Amino acid sequence: MDSAQLHLASSSPRRRSILRSLGIEFTQAGVCVDESCQRDEIITDIPMRLAIKKVRAVKRKDSCQLPILAADTLVIIGDQVCGKPKSKDDALSMLSKLSGRSHIVITAVALQVGEQIFSSKSSTEVRFRHISEDEAAAYWLSGEPIGKAGAYAIQGLGGVFVESIRGSYSGVVGLPVFETAKLLINAGIRILQQQKL
Predict the structure, then answer these.
(1) Per-residue b/e over 159-182, b at no fewer than 16 CB within 10 Å?
(2) pLDDT at 167
(3) Is 134 tagged catalytic?
């Protein structure tokens, strides 16, 4: 795409949709990085480290000349990280932990322009109502928990479990609009250029 303003280092359709809503032309491709936690790492720092790692991986691998945008989302309940479920049992366990409680969703965004990296993050408190075992099992069968941090998608069926939210809805979806727009503007990337009203 000759008119692309940046490269989105993600295969997420949700991130693509949010970025497109900002009126930006971009290329997109997923990037694989080791997402293992480091020893003695502060949990809330993990998403930022991974978002930065993703932009650097694209820059190294592809020698991309466009600015590179990446994000990482993490669900935290208490002092436990709820990543993407590895199995049905893992997803049901996560949903059980989230049931009737509040949790934090942190999404970090990194933007590399040349050799400079700009970054920001959103932190959102989400409270779930009680989820019965039958509901959790039915939700698993929908396929939606697969590949989602915390085993749910707030913008999909998972929204039926959400009692309240305090913070960035788009951050919970996977790309906080306010923080992302601010990074882009500060880096000199124009937004809202391709909007059709």
Answers:
(1) eebeeebebbbbbbbbbbbebbbe
(2) 97
(3) no
Joined together, the tokens standing for residue 91 give 């997803």
CATH number at residue 67: 3.90.950.10
Under DSSP, is residue 162 helix (H, G, I), strand (E, B) or coil?
strand
pTM of the model: 0.89
Residue-wise pLDDT for 34-80, tens only, equals: 667 777 878 899 999 999 999 998 877 766 788 999 999 999 998 88
| Arithmetic mean of pLDDT over the chain | 90
Amino acid at 194: Q
- Over residues 100-136, the pLDDT tens digits come to 999 999 999 999 998 899 999 999 999 999 999 999 9
Q: Which domain holds residue 173?
A: 6-186
Domains in the chain, number: 1
The catalytically annotated residue of 2, 40, 62, 72 is 72
Q: What is the dihedral of CA 169, 181, 45, 101, to 10 degrees?
A: -10
